[in-house]
Amino acid sequence: MSSSSSYKQFAHLRIPLEEIVSGTTNFSNANLIRESAFGKAYKGHLFRSEQQIDIVAERLDRKHGYGDVEFWKEISMLSSLKHENLVSIIGFCEEKDEKIIIYKDKVNGSLDKLLRDPTLTWMRRLQICVGVAHALSYIHYDKRRDFSVIHRDIRSSKILLNDHWEAKLSGFELSISQKAARRNRLCLINVRGMRGYCDPTYVKSGSVTHKSDMYYFGVLLFEVLFGKNAVMVNEVNRLLAPLAISHYEGGRLDDMIDPVLWKQMDPQSFKIFSEIAYYCLKKQRSQRPNIDQIVMKLEKALESQQKHENPAYSTVEGIASKTLKGKNVEHLRIPLSDIVSATKNFSKTYLIGSGTYGDVYKAELDHFDDKYFLPLQEKQKSELPKKRSIVAIKRILVREDKQGEQGFLAEIEMLSSCKHPNIVSLLGFCEEGPHMILVYEHAANGSLDNYLEGSGKLANLSWMQRIKICIDIARGLHYLHTKIEDERRIIHRDIKSGNILLGENWVAKIADFGLSKFHPKSQQRNTLYTEHIAGTKVYLDPEYDNTGKLKNETDIYSFGVVLFEVLSGRFANDLIYTKEDSNGFAPVARRRFNEGTIKEIVDPRLLEETHESVFTLNKGPDQDSLDAFSKIAYQCVAENQAGRPTAEVIIKKLEEALSFQENIKDNLKLSLEGLISITENFSSKNEIGKGGFGKVYKGEVAYADGRNTIAAKRLDKSLGQGEYEFLMELEILFEYKHENIIGLVGYCNEMDENIIVYEYASRGSLDKHLSNNGLTWRKRLEICIDIASGLDFLHGGAVTQEVVIHRDIKSYNILLNDDWKAKIADFGVSLISPINKDMDYVITNPCGTIGYIDPLYLKSGFLTRGSDIYSLGVVLFEILCGRLVCEIINGKLQILTNLFKRHYQEGNLDEMVFEGIKKQAVPKSLTTFQAIAYQCLHDESKNRPTTSEVLLQLKRALEFQEDYEIWAPKLPNDYEQTFKMSNFPEIHSIEKKKNLYDMLCKGILLQEGKMLFSLGDNGERNGMISARKFLYKRRSGSHKWRSVPESRFDKVAKMLDLSNLNIQVKIKPQFLSPGVNYGVYLVFKFCESRKSVTNRMYVNLKYKMGRETLHTYFATRREDGWMMIEMHRFLNHEKDDDFEFLLESFSRCYCESHDIYIQGIEFRAIDNVKHEEIKKLKEVQQLSIKSDLNMEHVQQFSTNFEKEIDRFEDYDEGEKLFSLNKVILKKKHYVISAKEAVYKSTDVKLFNVLPSTHSRFQNAIELLRQQVFRIKCKIESQRLSPDTEYTCYLVFKLSEKCYGLHCPVIVRDLLQQRKNKEKGIIYFRSPSPCNVNDTDRVPKEREDGWMEVNVWKFNSSNEIRDDCAYINLKLISYKGTMSGLIISSLEFRPL
């Protein structure tokens, strides 16, 4: 296909060469307006829609090194960027080896040709620079776009001027774009650009940011100021930038300025302009201003020049603090009707905040446009320049104390005299009737206090952003405190996080001047004395609060509190701080700083933050940055005003903190010495690979828990790759982590060495295994899926990440670990791309490996995700055929891609399939794989599949293979016959084996829908017989047939009387697995939803099996929402046995009167161990108990326990026993008599006392007829071993007259009931296996003839209160009384 087919999205821009030749008079020299590295530019005209338009035709000249890539880059960029200060592209021509780009406009020429032109006045120069700044602001970030552009080639020859002297930025052939969210990150790219303009940091590091454009722009500003080019050919000091820096620093700039131009300049305009130009050339990029700051400064310089040239224009004077009448603020007045209309009569829809003094609304409104500096008094109100924008409207409440009115007047007075990027702008006001309304610029990101405490928003603000916000606040304060010339200084008096607004790009602006104070013009001293103390308590300067001394330092104290809020992420009045000190955060912060524990108050979210540098694993703020920030914050909150710094000092210190953070230390960096050691000086015996980057060595790293193998790739610059590739790979491996991307361990860049250290892939690269017979087809499919998964992640599978195009996918770059997990490696030539839905390509110089590189990309320079897909397709064919795509045949290099494709097209690709897998591969798997591999190699990128589509087909191929290898063996031998008996008799022949297996696991209906056959987890056969096969012996009205969506059968039985079921079940289990233990379960559910149904519920089903009457007590909730209750267990034999049950009743007491649905009887395989565990009760440990010690012996246990280990003390009238247990590591053992343990009611007799035989105590107790009894006692902590798990056993017998206590008994811990509502279940008689859950506790017989059951467990340390362990248990019988239960004691034994 032709390369031009990639560009059809630009087809509407094509212009015939004939028209351009005619419009430029055959490129006449008379029409030549500039010559650049791209080529020559000619002015001319074209006819469009029967109208003649002025054009500029730029003709590519390849002799300077520019070509197709730069040509299409310019077209691509300008077709997606539209701004009044950018050149507008009309079209292009690509005919007869000509490549021409056509721009729209009548041009006076390029700026470089007019630098010395006297018609280019200082005012025009300023306007041109402002225009270029606006263009840069637009390309760097515009919220309507999701990508950002770095120009990389700003210079005077790229600035075209139209007949109105308006600047038009051109020359985007070297520009790069990146996602808007990434605009503050480094971008690695090969160095390009014109000498004299290029950012020296970019030249040195190979990384650019938007601050690189600021350097170019700084050079341009000095070109405009001096009227000289950046490179002065005939002068000793040829480069303008270093010359300008030295003259600025020496105060000699006027030496380089044309005298005629110098005379035109307003001094303030010159000062602002030269200062911003100088700061643009700062060596450290972090010290350069951003473009928004530059725009504001240049507009201020322009404003100053306009006032200088038009003395009639002057800044509006501040209004009196009492009234607005007669003051020159009419241009700010906005009719109430406009505001009412904009807010829909102050609708709540527009309300964005409320406070003590009023409400704030957000709306779109027309207001005075203050960027036009006109002599206002000469203009009628209707002629005033207007602007429509989103604004914040503050509607002030009328208050009895008049503070609202005072604040309203003060805001207008203060803000009408302030103009600074870090002070909120007053756009207008309204004073009509009782209405007092202020209109401000809208802060898009709200106020700083919205990002404190638990709002979660602060997570969006990195440590670097926080510092920048604080710098902005400090700059605003510095402006207020040091206003120049005859302007009065302002003390804000209420600096707090709620009064800091955050605009676009997080620029901070000080707001709310209602309490602010002017220094009177006549007052020279720095201190004001006020009778009324104003401000917010926890921010309030203590010296001002005590003395009334109001100074700049009052604001500094408040700002210090804000600094600590930003650091901690909490409000100054947070309870954490006010509990510690009633004055709030400041005194707490001072104390923490002095104690050296300031890091304890750092926002924990910051401690998880990684630095924006791609080469560090450090988390949280850099320590030097944190120290510098906290130190200046501490100084700000000094108790005495004299000890606080000025705003100017604060700015300097915060900028230092920012610089530390921007140049954060790197924890990924490894020492060269260490790498030399572990690789044995890069010994050849440790060499495990080599490539275009260099050689790779294996090494052993020692860790505390063992040794780990790593791989160190050492750059060899003689092979063509260099520092750019080194940095690019580091950036991608650091940011893009995935199980199928090789893991980064670290890097080294010492002594001209560039080394990347990776996780070790023990099996090496894929190319070495292509012809490995042991690499099965299934394993090859899994490797392919791994590669596609990694590539899908890089291509945007991670939504939060940008697209990475690898550009060199090949089998050499696929590494394999021990378990054959594939990992994509070698990202040196990869590209982090701004690809999005609107621009799905990048224009760049082709790179990659022959045989794997996308031919379309190689020819055109248009790089897409599809380029990687092509390379992936080549690797897929290599894996299929067991050979590399490039082979030496008859002494010549042969590329097999076309051979792969031809064999596929001819239908005989099987001839090329690797012999080692031919017999393994299932035909469906093979054809699915071949088809997707072939699609990957499609000539047109748009017709290639995406990574997700490739993944889908590869997984299908693996499913077909696994169907044969894994799922077919899992199916029963007779699965075909089983399916033939189902409702879908032919499905077995068309469905995949996995689907059939899944269907059988879920269950299929047999026997005309009256039996559900299914497979268990281990392949055992299960069956459920429908309730339709039961016999209902009562009258017809006892049950009804209902359809229930949750049932597997079409009908279920609705039973209307739970107390009299009378259902006869006679069934013969079929299709069950022989030799397997089965449980027989009744499957049912309540018709009405119950408020609280736990997973296990007492229902007490009474039934007969043969002549024996049985009870099963607990039903269990299943995953499908039904309940099941076990009725019987049996071992299945080859022959089928009949089972007969008569279902009699459920407990009406516990089931209430709810009707139930019965689905059927299920035969389900059970665990054999579980089936046997109840049959044999474990023997209980026998404890030798001696009771012949006195108290002295007990007291000696702690010091002489080995001698007394088996001695016991009988004390407290024989009701308690204490011992040390030899068996369990000499832990203490405690016994309490039943008389001591069982709770005695004062009103009711609960038990009789009986003499006890064969017991440790003389007496036991026998409970009387009651359903409930309690155990309530306490144990002194010294009687228990510390930090020990104890089990509490109830020692008991059943009297000969006891015929009850068959049912389970509930045990509730009354002390823990709120924490844990789960109740324990115990039995006093051994239950049938059907009635025992894993957590139930059953009785065990002791050697002394008594029984015991576990009723409680506790930890001796956790349960201690007031030096005692308290026990308060409530035991409740589900049915019947406790009569006949004889209790001997309560024993506490360590586990």
From TrEMBL:
Keyword RNA-binding tagged: no
Amino-acid biosynthesis is among the record's keywords: no
Classification via InterPro entries: ANXUR1/2-like, Kinase-like_dom_sf, PP2-like, Prot_kinase_dom, Protein_kinase_ATP_BS, Ser-Thr/Tyr_kinase_cat_dom, Ser/Thr_kinase_AS
Catalytic activity: L-seryl-[protein] + ATP = O-phospho-L-seryl-[protein] + ADP + H(+); L-threonyl-[protein] + ATP = O-phospho-L-threonyl-[protein] + ADP + H(+)
Occurrences of domain Protein kinase (ranges): 27-302, 346-658, 682-958
E.C. code: 2.7.11.1
Major subcellular location class: membrane
Pfam families, per the entry: PK_Tyr_Ser-Thr, Pkinase, PP2
Compartments in which it is found: Cell membrane
A Gene Ontology term for the protein's cellular component: plasma membrane
Keyword annotations: ATP-binding, Cell membrane, Glycoprotein, Kinase, Leucine-rich repeat, Membrane, Nucleotide-binding, Phosphoprotein, Receptor, Repeat, Serine/threonine-protein kinase, Signal, Transferase, Transmembrane, Transmembrane helix
SMART domains: S_TKc
Binding locations of ATP: K713
Enzyme class label: transferase
Topology relative to the membrane: Single-pass membrane protein
Molecular function GO terms recorded: ATP binding; protein kinase activity; protein serine/threonine kinase activity; transmembrane receptor protein tyrosine kinase activity
Full protein name: non-specific serine/threonine protein kinase
Organism: Lactuca sativa (Garden lettuce)
Lineage, top ranks: Eukaryota, Viridiplantae, Streptophyta, Embryophyta, Tracheophyta
